[in-house]
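#data-curation
PF: Archiving a pair of folding outputs for the training set. Convention for this channel: one message per protein, sequence first, structure tokens after, nothing in between. First:
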Amino acid sequence: MRKLLLASLAVLSAISSPAFGQSTAPVEADAVFLDYVFSTGERLPEVKIHYTTLGTPKRDARGDISNAVMILHGTGGTGHQFFQPQFAGELFGPGQVLDTSKYFIILPDNIGHGKSSKPSDGMRMAFPKYDYSDMIATQHALVTKTLGIKKLKLILGTSMGCMHAFMWGSRYPEAVEKLAPFACLPVEIAGQNRMWRKLSMDAIKADPTWNAGNYTAPPMSGLRTAATLSLIAGANPLALQAQYPTRQAAEAFTDEAFARVVTRNDANDSIYQLDSSRNYNPWQSLEAIKAPTLWINSADDFINPANYGITELAIKRLPKTKFILIPASPETKGHGTHSWAKFWKDELAALLAQ
């Protein structure tokens, strides 16, 4: 049993208001949990979870917060990724689906990511080998202990956050009203999905500069291979062919995209992030999910292909779930379609209106 003791809750700063019509600036804070025991049995004196909030909590007649929405990022991301215009500009403004004058939005950085506790803080490869169960345990502690929320109105999760949403639905069924998992499958990370992750991790570890995690300069050879695999895994081939129809255009885009992602994350952090999915497998507990659920994947998703037959089997066991497969087009974004709200915001509005 994890010992999750709140040590402190400190408002760190208010970040500048993004261009989606926010009337008040988002607020960043840290929750620190003392003597945290990981699923592996390893422990740390404290684990810090950084998070950002938008909007103001509202309370019902019993005094409980009734308008809280948590949005969960993908592997290698942070809560701040949701400030991008294709997400925030479609959802958070006045009159939009997640209008921040109506909802209290919570954007955590998961363990191993962003400004939360992670290997690159100093422990490197001695950092405890966290997994998704540690991530959702600290999310739950953040929501219930730090913020005092008994029940979330909605969890929306993209990619890794999608998998976390499925885990929440079965492990904490009384703590969330509705679920919106986008871009994942509720099965063990295996086959091609595990392979590209393992190839990425192995590439970093095979770089002599990595030095068992004790590098003095980034292991660029390994990071280049990992970045290459990530670009291919996240792409929509149909859109790339339409948007970059010549060799020159394709190579120019490749160079720009590669430069943007190759050193985005620390090498040790990347290994941990990719490996944290190793124990994910909600398949045996799907019937425990009682919340109305909007599950959306895209047909151009290399990471979660549409022809596995998994969704058809899962839906039979999820009677309160609506599954939508977004067709591939020159406008969709491959795996990243999950963060382009124009493709699914009307369905999300319908879920919230139920």
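PF: Second:
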Amino acid sequence: MSKILFLSNGHGEDLSGSLMGNAFKKLGHEVNALPLVGHGEAYLNAGLKVLGKTNSFSTGGMGYTSLRGRILELIQGQIIYLIKRIYLLFSISSKYDFLVVVGDVLPITVAWLTGLPVATYLVAYSSHYEGKLKLPWPCSICLSNDKFFKIFTRDKLSAYDLKKQIFGKVEFIGNPFMDPFITKHQSLPKHNKRLGILPGSRMPEVGDNLCLILRVIDYISNLRYEDYDISFDVALVSSLNDSLLKNIITPYGWKLCYRSKKDHPLKLIKNNVVVNIYRNSFVKVVQSSNVLISMAGTATEQAVLLGKLVIQIEGKGPQFTATFAEAQRRLLGTKIFCANGSVLQKKYMIETCKLILDLLDSSSQDFFFNEKDNKLISEEKIIERVSETMAKSITDSFFNY
């Protein structure tokens, strides 16, 4: 069997890469990973070997970063770190039969420069953003090269668009990051109105995002609506531990209350408001929620593809900015709602809270949950275990390469 190296550059990309990597392992291949940013936690959690000494930076990678984020990248030495990772790739690439790229122009370009055969899941680009797929230079040159023997897109429109440029090797069969939702998971206790909260995954931005969302929850509680029986549930990354969490929320008047029983969640309490904290329970929180507040990338897409209603809150970045949020709305369409403007301004805070309460009312009546209205959901649910289908397709294409 083959020896395969995964290249990716971001938390969402690592997640898809880890799922695909496990699918290759089941087929008998040897799989290693070289994440270009971060520690590659998704690969490690999946039991895959991550190569080299890794580091994590506050911006979480290069993409829709704010100006502040780009300055931070320079100060923290992210560019130098990236050069070292690329050097490691070139020094070990001859040991592998082919590369699998999950990401954008950066890993695609460096994979091309190795001269190895490459399969890629083009997760970072979509024709839904601007109506036409506009790949940055030198993406088109790389993907058109014969060394790129298989290309998967994130949606049908992009596959159709790219096929006109690169012909038969482009295909859409679904998105691997939806695989975790195929297995039935235990739900949270039943509640008529459950508001899920996704503050993101990148440290330290996730802490700032959570505090911003807590402001919204505090404001909702002060509205004193008659039917105010809402369960607030946060899917929180383990990297924001109890000590860090306490330091972040205390200045805003919130208290951290530890579990009274092992199966009970950690709680944040302010006056009469209770917010439940769940770690390592992302799938459970998303599946159990009527509506979600999200300041995340891949997590938002997963929720929308499940048919959930999502409210965005614009953050200050460096990753989840107003620009990123707007691009996300173009990609995901009618299931995402946003009051354009910062909730730090009272006008937009009122709009956002009203939007949340209206959507909770509507969702509890099952008014919006009609999956036929969302072609993306239908496409995702046709195929089970997208990662396994991709692994088999890539293997067959490589042996015929």
